[in-house]
Amino acid sequence: MGKINKDRKGIHFDRRTFLKGAALGLAGTALPLNKADASFWETFFQKHFREMNEAEIKQVLERMEKEYEQKYKRAIKVGNEKELPGVLFGYGLDLSRCIGCRRCEYACVDENNQSRDPQIHWITVLRFKKGEKWVDLVESEKYYNPELVPEPDYFYMPVQCQQCENPPCVRVCPTQATWKEPDGIVVIDYNWCIGCRYCMAACPYGARHFNWAEPKVKPEEINPQTHYLGNRPRSKGVVEKCTFCIQRTRNGRYPACVEACPVGARKFGNLLDPNSEIRYAIEHKRVFRLKEDLNTYPKFYYFFAYGV
User: Fold this and answer.
1) Residue 13 in this model has a pLDDT that exceeds 60
2) Helix extents (H) in the chain
3) What CATH architecture is 82-308?
């Protein structure tokens, strides 16, 4: 059975621990009766995000903001911006421009409050030798450290959540903690994730990451502008992933990785807008999507604008 941690405020355990205890017939003995920790009970019995009305969502966001302020000693806003009408987000990446500098990767870490210890990165930049016939994600190099990039004999491919139109991760989640929003972003309700990692096994792109330990981010490094379904602080035992910087894109801004790219390799926009940058790339470049044969229909397009 999962650990039950004790501290000065009482007994704390997560939903996964409770469910495992319930399966063993131990739920009655596992539940603490400490009335002092009302916030714990509100969190534990919180409704699924899509079942809450606006008043309930507002109450949850206010509770979270108070909890985060106590933990990080600074004000943190937890937003709930809705999808924009007539928008279906898509992403393009020009592999002929990418220089493998990883600035996108670390901009993502800073923007989305990813754990520094242990490290979690939603973006992985892969290195491939030029002239190789196949792009093999398994056999690629994740850990390269040359003095200078780009290297003349290599090209680079950043990989992150592909925001599939037919996401296999959604189908396997036993608690429906992950789903696809109307604007195409696949999101996670961390409060309903039980850490079973079925979604990680189902994802063919290795884009989901599990918090094996309590995520650590220094208070001064926290991005205080967060979204409930995106970059708000996470806890041990939950899965997380790229959300196209939902806290930015639903406010009309580019994802952090797009802004950080020094060579303009990253393209982002509305797939439904014929005049958008991403539509231009799709219509005028020879684009491809990873593992198209799996019929996941990623909304992440790769292309070579010129030879490498």
Assistant:
1) no
2) 15-23, 27-30, 38-44, 54-72, 103-111, 168-172, 198-202, 246-249, 256-260, 277-284
3) 2-Layer Sandwich (3.30)
